[in-house]
Amino acid sequence: MKKGTSISVLLEAMTESLSVEEIIASAVKADVANQITEWRVAHNMSQQEMADYCEVQQDTISKWENGDLNFTIEEMAEIACKLDLVLEVSLNSKRT
To answer: pTM of the full predicted structure?
Structure first.
Protein backbone atom coordinates (compact mmCIF):
# COMPACT_ATOMS: atom_id res chain seq x y z
CA MET A 1 0.00 0.00 0.00
CA LYS A 2 1.22 3.46 -0.74
CA LYS A 3 1.25 6.40 1.63
CA GLY A 4 -2.04 8.27 1.77
CA THR A 5 -4.21 5.23 1.07
CA SER A 6 -7.67 5.67 2.56
CA ILE A 7 -8.82 3.56 5.51
CA SER A 8 -11.61 1.99 3.44
CA VAL A 9 -9.08 0.77 0.87
CA LEU A 10 -6.91 -0.62 3.66
CA LEU A 11 -9.87 -2.39 5.29
CA GLU A 12 -10.96 -3.83 1.97
CA ALA A 13 -7.46 -5.17 1.33
CA MET A 14 -7.32 -6.70 4.80
CA THR A 15 -10.68 -8.44 4.46
CA GLU A 16 -10.31 -9.76 0.92
CA SER A 17 -8.98 -13.07 2.19
CA LEU A 18 -11.55 -13.41 4.98
CA SER A 19 -14.79 -15.31 4.64
CA VAL A 20 -18.11 -13.70 5.49
CA GLU A 21 -18.25 -15.94 8.57
CA GLU A 22 -14.84 -14.69 9.76
CA ILE A 23 -15.88 -11.07 9.29
CA ILE A 24 -19.13 -11.61 11.23
CA ALA A 25 -17.29 -13.44 14.03
CA SER A 26 -14.71 -10.65 14.27
CA ALA A 27 -17.43 -8.02 14.49
CA VAL A 28 -19.24 -9.92 17.25
CA LYS A 29 -16.01 -10.45 19.22
CA ALA A 30 -15.17 -6.76 18.88
CA ASP A 31 -18.65 -5.78 20.09
CA VAL A 32 -18.45 -8.11 23.12
CA ALA A 33 -14.94 -6.85 23.94
CA ASN A 34 -16.15 -3.26 23.73
CA GLN A 35 -19.13 -3.91 26.01
CA ILE A 36 -16.94 -5.62 28.62
CA THR A 37 -14.49 -2.71 28.56
CA GLU A 38 -17.32 -0.17 28.80
CA TRP A 39 -18.73 -2.01 31.83
CA ARG A 40 -15.36 -1.99 33.59
CA VAL A 41 -14.73 1.70 32.88
CA ALA A 42 -18.28 2.64 33.94
CA HIS A 43 -17.62 0.89 37.26
CA ASN A 44 -14.26 2.65 37.69
CA MET A 45 -12.40 -0.64 37.94
CA SER A 46 -8.90 -1.54 36.87
CA GLN A 47 -8.47 -4.81 35.02
CA GLN A 48 -7.13 -6.33 38.24
CA GLU A 49 -10.13 -5.14 40.24
CA MET A 50 -12.49 -6.56 37.63
CA ALA A 51 -10.53 -9.82 37.64
CA ASP A 52 -10.94 -10.05 41.41
CA TYR A 53 -14.66 -9.25 41.06
CA CYS A 54 -15.12 -11.94 38.37
CA GLU A 55 -12.82 -14.42 40.10
CA VAL A 56 -10.49 -14.75 37.10
CA GLN A 57 -6.92 -13.75 36.33
CA GLN A 58 -6.10 -10.21 35.15
CA ASP A 59 -4.78 -11.59 31.85
CA THR A 60 -8.23 -13.10 31.26
CA ILE A 61 -9.80 -9.64 31.52
CA SER A 62 -7.18 -8.35 29.11
CA LYS A 63 -8.03 -11.13 26.64
CA TRP A 64 -11.76 -10.41 27.02
CA GLU A 65 -11.20 -6.73 26.30
CA ASN A 66 -8.85 -7.36 23.37
CA GLY A 67 -11.19 -9.89 21.77
CA ASP A 68 -8.48 -12.53 22.03
CA LEU A 69 -10.88 -15.27 23.16
CA ASN A 70 -13.48 -17.22 21.26
CA PHE A 71 -16.23 -17.20 23.85
CA THR A 72 -18.56 -20.15 24.15
CA ILE A 73 -22.21 -19.38 24.87
CA GLU A 74 -21.66 -20.76 28.36
CA GLU A 75 -18.71 -18.40 28.96
CA MET A 76 -20.70 -15.43 27.69
CA ALA A 77 -23.61 -16.40 29.98
CA GLU A 78 -21.22 -16.66 32.94
CA ILE A 79 -19.74 -13.22 32.17
CA ALA A 80 -23.22 -11.73 31.80
CA CYS A 81 -24.26 -13.15 35.17
CA LYS A 82 -21.12 -11.93 36.93
CA LEU A 83 -21.57 -8.43 35.49
CA ASP A 84 -25.36 -8.42 36.01
CA LEU A 85 -25.94 -7.96 32.28
CA VAL A 86 -28.50 -9.45 29.93
CA LEU A 87 -27.10 -11.75 27.25
CA GLU A 88 -29.02 -11.48 24.02
CA VAL A 89 -28.31 -13.44 20.86
CA SER A 90 -30.18 -12.63 17.70
CA LEU A 91 -30.26 -14.26 14.31
CA ASN A 92 -32.41 -12.42 11.81
CA SER A 93 -33.34 -13.22 8.26
CA LYS A 94 -31.33 -11.42 5.59
CA ARG A 95 -32.90 -8.53 3.84
CA THR A 96 -32.72 -8.62 0.08
So the answer is: 0.75
